[in-house]
Model the fold of this input.
Amino acid sequence: MGTPAVLIRKSTQEIIKHADYPREDMEPVEGLNPDLEWLVKYEPYVQPDYDSRTYNLETVGTITTTPHPLYPDLNQYTITYSIERKEDDEILEVLDNLEAQMNETIIPIAAQLKYLSGALECLFKIVRDSATLKNKEEKIVRTFRKQAVKVLKNHETKLAKKAILAGGNLPTLDDVWNTNEFVEEV
Done:
């Protein structure tokens, strides 16, 4: 692989192309139109660490007349980075997705319908018939209630994080959620 570079038109500061520098020995290109110049890409700083759920990485390339530190006969095309906070509506969507992810660990979507239906049938049986639940039915209700409490707490967590965001601050995304590996009791 060659050395990354940029071919520019000096008079207009137009980038003509991004490509590897055309010479392996990194000497200036002979016979090149005087209005054209090859700049060698240079990153003075490493790309910053950032959370892509709440920030966007902005890459800025700058045409310079500064000599490249490794190839002093060639100027550098400087690449720098900045991070920009995402818009609130994008972060709100992240929070909704996190809540769904955490709830999936509490009770998978596939099990939700079964436990919800079973728990409702047990409730109807108690209310309608004043019946006592059988052991298997008790397990269904117990499992559903335990998971439902955690799901509701996750909803409260999401609402609290959204309130922090509405207040102009960035909430921490990964703490306070209720999760567990779902264990089917029935």
Q: What stands out?
A: The CA atoms of residues 57 and 89 lie 18 Å apart. The chain has three helices and five strands.
